[in-house]
Amino acid sequence: MRDFAAETEKRIAFIQDCLKNSSASGIVFGNSGGKDAALVGVLCKLACENTVGIIMPCQTKRNYGSDMADGKLFAEQFNIETRIVDLTSQKLQAIESLSEISKLNEGAITNIAPRLRMMTLYAIAASENRLVAGTGNRSEIYMGYFTKWGDGAYDFNPIADLTVTEIYEYLKYLKVPANIIEKAPSGGLRDGQTDEEDMGISYTAIDQYLLSGKVSEKDRQIIEDFHTRSEHKRKLPIVYGR
Known about the structure:
Layout: H1 4-22, E1 26-30, H2 35-47, E2 51-55, H3 61-64, H4 66-77, E3 81-84, H5 88-99, H6 106-110, H7 112-128, E4 130-132, H8 138-143, H9 164-174, H10 178-182, H11 195-199, H12 203-212, H13 217-229
Parallel strand pairs: 1-2, 1-4, 2-3
């Protein structure tokens, strides 16, 4: 049986080392109301009392509804400071300004919100001597299901080695509210959007592949295609002479 108590202590020590090595006095993370943000928020709070979660609704109904409600709920349970900033007007302004110089496609528009959110987190971090905690999990990272320079940017990530399946197990151990665990994973970037629908494959299949390599040939092809196409997201920028 997995020893979550010992694992938690190791992750707390990792976070505290990150703070010590950077001389930062606090942590900030994006509180999306989802599973990953909840786990990161709890671990960071256990490691550092000066942890703040930022709820950043941006245009979609889910952002203002269940995501915000769930974000507030788990933050209250674990006594995590919460702040809310509405980014809808900034996104609309960005679209309007950029549309004057380029025809934006759906992918470009979709990625504006994650990048605005990361800009927000780093502005707060720079102003308050905090580190930005990442909330991406192993499954998403392998698939490249994140926005480059958006949710893929951070100072440290305490859960990047955990698959979605393992994160659900961890959340149950920590007694995080059930509705966070039970709702369909979604970036909330479009109304009705879910991660698994976007990718065309379930997290169960992705995690089986990562943990055992045992999946159908169809699922293997989907996973390997996503991983190959997104390789650039997992590398440092290309520079001359390196």
